[in-house]
Structure formats: structure tokens, C-alpha cells
Amino acid sequence: ATESEEKDLVIIGGGVAGYVAAIKAGQEGLKVACIEKRGTLGGTCLNVGCIPSKSLLNNSHLYHQILHDSKHRGIEVGDVKLNLAQLMKAKEQSVSGLTKGVEFLLKKNGVEYIKGAGAFADEHTINVKLNDGGETSVKGKNILIATGSEVTPFPGLEIDEKRVISSTGAIALEKVPEKMLVIGGGIIGLEMASVWSRLGAQVTVIEFLDQIGGPGMDLEVAKSIQKILKKQGINFKTGTKVVSGDKTGETVKLEVDSAKGGKPETLEGDVVLVAIGRRPYTEGLGLENIGLEKDERGRVIIDSEYRTKIPHIRCVGDVTFGPMLAHKAEEEAVAVVEYIKKGYGHVNYGCIPSVMYTFPEVAWVGQSEQELKKAGVPYRVGTFPFSANSRAKTNLDTEGMVKMIADPETDRILGVHIIGPNAGEMIAEGTLALEYGASSEDIARTCHAHPTLAEAFKEAAMATHSKAIHF
Ligand code: FAD
Ligand code: NAD
What we know:
This protein is of the alpha/beta class and 471 residues long. It contains 13 helices and 22 strands. The strands form 5 sheets. It has a 5-stranded mixed barrel. A 5-stranded parallel sheet has the order 8-15-9-10-11. A 5-stranded antiparallel sheet has the order 18-19-22-21-20, sandwiched between helices. Strand 4 (112-120) and strand 5 (125-130) form a beta hairpin. Bound molecules: flavin-adenine dinucleotide and nicotinamide-adenine-dinucleotide (NAD).
């Protein structure tokens, strides 16, 4: 074993949280090591999450649009064929380009990248089982846990990534299944249901709650996107719980039960996607060697400055509290390095956008109507449909709306909820408004270029403040 010099910061995990912290710490002049066992940097997000799923979503949308949404636009196409192997290759190219890019950025910022699995030997020492064989150890004045998350398994239905798949299997299927069942109508369930339904599978999504979309999605928006996705061919069974699964036969069988006590039913699929959430990942990390605690959901416990109870050991990203989102992990990564280097940092957890990359996209920031109602906070709502937006009409993509929620007295924006083409880009405008404490009038009086989809955002603000012009 070789013993390297003591670092200012040792980071365990090279996912979005870990690699961003590594770059930021390098920029701040700290001596940094980043330990990653996967063999490539970027974690779940770049390797098996955000990036490959968005590649498949983008290209499956193009395929579906060419097949079903081109003739009336004046484009007649001949023999359209799916080349799934090439679709996957395009996905792999995006992934490898980006993961290599991150490796270059670590090098550029003087970060030592150690390829292997790290485990606490003591409060300052991490032992690393190197991917190439052998071991090393590295000491850090500060240590950052950024080990991320893994899929939550469904009890009794073992994931084999062929017939019973997690999102990792769902981005790598070798053929389009005839019938696909999806357990969980959260973001992963709906994004993957979109991909495979567009490519020709008959997809049924089974969701325990009465609304799809997972935590945080505004109810009106959830109902509306469910209708749109249903029209696209995805079947839904909401208010339905998957009780058990059996993959011993030709097809995979799921026993489902109405959440409200209706009659049980058996569903069959060639492939079943388990998408019931993700859980923090700390396996083999040796937290027990230093007495670090997790909460009842397996999250590493930290304070508001990302410190565990051993103050020089901090933790950010999916493995601790908060939404499991890449951009949340990134914000925390920058803030934690600022705490280490300067003693202060900041993340505004009330202002983290969410995006679901279906077509149309769904995006939101701030609070939903239900959350405000529950908290007894008064609010005013203004909406504007894309069917009244000139650019959406021109593009023949008129489904969706912008919904804005503001304080009735101060007019301060409390939440923005969008269904629409490009909602994921447009929500940046809402996030900026929320972060700066804008009122709906501020937005209503801000000139927006014509003809753009963003005018729907302005008009929703006008509707919130007084009246929209075009609706
Ligand atoms: P991770 O990305 O999980 O990285 C942790 C890394 O630590 C891993 O690479 C792991 O190998 C490594 N590691 C763990 N233990 C050790 C150890 N002991 N030693 C060395 N290395 C270790 N979020 C979005 O914001 N937008 C999206 O569009 C989006 N799409 C997603 C799609 C899918 C299918 C999935 C599954 C997730 C998606 N997410 C998305 C969520 C996003 O991927 C995560 O929030 C993000 O990756 C969290 O970053 P992280 O660094 O905390 O953890
Ligand atoms: P989720 O928590 O968003 O959704 C899981 C859904 O499964 C919930 O709606 C839940 O009610 C349902 N469910 C649980 N048990 C069930 C059962 N037995 N029967 C029927 N339904 C059941 O989790 P996810 O979709 O797996 O996503 C995991 C994480 O990854 C989330 O934190 C998400 O934010 C993140 N992610 C984000 C993006 C994005 O930002 N675009 C994309 C993919 C994943």
C-alpha cells in the first residue's frame, strides 16, 4: 500500500455532489482527492440517470414525432424504422463524452482522482480498495461523504435488469418489450414509460396514490399531464398498490390491490420496471468504524452546515436530506466547500426547481396549491394556456399551461408550475423570480420577446396580477 500526503479535503464519491465539490475545492486552492469506485466520474446522474435517460427521451420523442406528428406539418416520410442499437449508441456517446469531460476538469483543477472503493479506517483516514487491485489509504483534514443513492428494491421481486428492471435496466433494454408494467408513477416511472411507449411498448403505470408525478407536483398539473400521457397511449392505474410480484413464469405477474380496498387483480408484463424511489447508499463505507449515525431512512445525519457529529466530516447530495436531484447536489457541493474554506455558504431549499422530461415537460418551483392550503397560507392563482400563445400555436404544440401562485397581499411569487414544451428551460425564469423575491407584477411588466413560449410565462404573471391580454 502506498501512503499519499494528507489532503485538505478527501471526497468519497465522484457523482455530481462529489465531482463538483472536487472542482470547487481545487479552484479554492485546496489539496483534494476524490475517490470513485464506478470506474467513471459523474455518478448516477451522468452514467445511469439524468444524462442517458434524457438522451433516450429526446430521441424517442423524435422517432414518435416523425411517425405520428409529421404528416399534418407537411412532412411525408417513407419507411421509418427504429434502430434501437443505434439509439443506445447515441446515448452511450453522450455519457462517455460527459464523464470524460468531468475527468478532464478534475485534472485541470489539480484534483487527485483515486479509482477505488473508499471506507473509513478512522476519523481522518480512508482506506481505498483500488479498482486495479491492491489498496491505498489517504488522509484528509476534511472529509466529504458524497456516496449518493441506489434504487429501492420491491420486496420479493428481485431485480435482474432483464425482466425485472430498475431505471438502470430501463435505459439499456435490448429490445422493445411488448407489455411493460411500471411500479410507481413518480418521475422515473413516467420518464421511462414515455420512452418505451413511444418506441412501441404497451405500458401500464401502477401508482399507489391518486395522483401521478411523485412528491411536490401540483395536483392540477398532475391531473392534466396524466390526461396528456394517457392520450399518448400510456395506461394508468392510480390509487392502486402493487402488493406482490412473481417472475417464475413466462411473464412477470403483479398482484395489485385498490388502495381503497377494491378487488385485487393480477397484471402481466414481459418486463416490470421497479420505480418506487431511491434510498441513500452507504454500503461498505465503514460509518460504523467511526460511529456515524443514519436516520430511519438511511440518510447520513448532518447539521445546517453539512457537518456530521464529527465536524470535519461533512456530507452532501442524495445520501443525506432533501430532494434527490442533481442540481440540489451541485448547489450543496459548492456551499460545503465554501463552509470549509470560508466558514459560510448557502443553499436556498425553497427555490430548487423540479423538471419531468416527458413531452410536454412538467416543471415547477416553489410551493404547490396543496402545500399552501395545508399550511393555511392565502394565495392567488393566475394561469395562461399554451393554446393562447402564438409561438406554441405556430409550432402546433399547444398542450399545457403556466400557472403562477402569488401572495394576495404582497403579490410576491410563491410558486410556478408549468406543463409545456420547453417547461424545463422556462422554469429557470420562475426560479430566478422566486430567488429574487419578485412579484407577479414585476414579471408582468418585464418585456418578453415575441413570438416566444416565454410570453406565456409573462401572461400568466399578468393574469395573476390583473388580466392576461391574449386569453
Ligand atoms: P450519485 O450520483 O449517486 O454519486 C455517488 C457516487 O459515489 C457513485 O458514482 C458511486 O459509485 C460512488 N460511491 C459510493 N460509495 C462509494 C465508496 N465507498 N467509495 C467510492 N465511491 C463510492 N436528477 C436531476 O436533477 N435531473 C434528472 O433529470 C435526473 N434524472 C435521473 C434519472 C434517473 C434514471 C435516476 C436514477 C436519477 C436521476 N436524477 C436526476 C437524480 C440524480 O441522478 C441524483 O440526484 C444525483 O446523481 C445525486 O448525486 P450524488 O453525487 O449525490 O450521488
Ligand atoms: P418517486 O419517489 O418520485 O416516485 C415513486 C412513486 O412510487 C411514488 O409516487 C409512490 O407513491 C409510488 N409507489 C411506491 N410504492 C408503490 C407500490 N407498492 N405500488 C404502487 N406505487 C408505489 O421515485 P422515483 O420515480 O423512483 O425517483 C427516484 C428519485 O430520482 C426521485 O427523488 C427523483 O426526484 C429522482 N429523479 C429525478 C428525475 C428528474 O429530475 N427529471 C428523473 C428521474 C429521477
